Amino acid sequence: MSKPDKKQAILDTALTLFVSQGFYATSTASIAKKAGVATGTLFHHFPSKDELMKHLFLSIKQEFADAITASIKDSGDLKQDAEHLWYSAIQWAIDYPLKQEFFQQYSMSPSIAIEIREQAMNSILSFMGNLMQQGQTQGLFASYPLTLMQDNCHGQYLAATRYFLDNPEKWQVDTHKQASFSMFWNAMVQS
């Protein structure tokens, strides 16, 4: 197994174990053993379990953001663009349920340092902040503090994906799909 393969095996195994057992119950030794690498190899790539968690969190967030930004269509209609982003984001969660489960467990967890969550929100997911600022500039969105809006929207995303992962058949029902976007949109619009 080459070094990149070993590193990826460690990340894939850590993802599975963190989701199934939890961060604190998962030892670095169990990750290394299940990944088929020496514990020293794990520590060569990740000096600590916290560093492994941080890397995993940011790399999956980046993968998510890359998939969403690749689907961005600037139609000139903010609501239509936001709806497309919302549906793309939820579809990603449905396509990658293990990664989404990881987010469900760790996005708001004290296991992830606040500066790492902020890095994910402000740089990796900057397209969401840009959309919100655009909405505020156009007078469509309320002038709530941007970081509060981002956290609220993130919470709505986690709730919607939890619902659709628990009830996958509902994702195919237009009324449920549209309702999820309406709740997201209505939380931001100027009243």
Automatic annotation (TrEMBL):
Keywords: DNA-binding. One of its GO terms (molecular function) is DNA binding. Residues 27-46 bind DNA. It holds the Pfam family TetR_N. InterPro entries: DNA-bd_HTH_TetR-type_CS, Homeodomain-like_sf, HTH-type_TetR-like_transc_reg, HTH_TetR. Residues 4-64 form the HTH tetR-type domain. PROSITE patterns: HTH_TETR_1, HTH_TETR_2. PANTHER family: HTH-TYPE TRANSCRIPTIONAL REGULATOR RUTR, REGULATORY PROTEIN. This is TetR/AcrR family transcriptional regulator. It comes from Shewanella hanedai (Alteromonas hanedai).
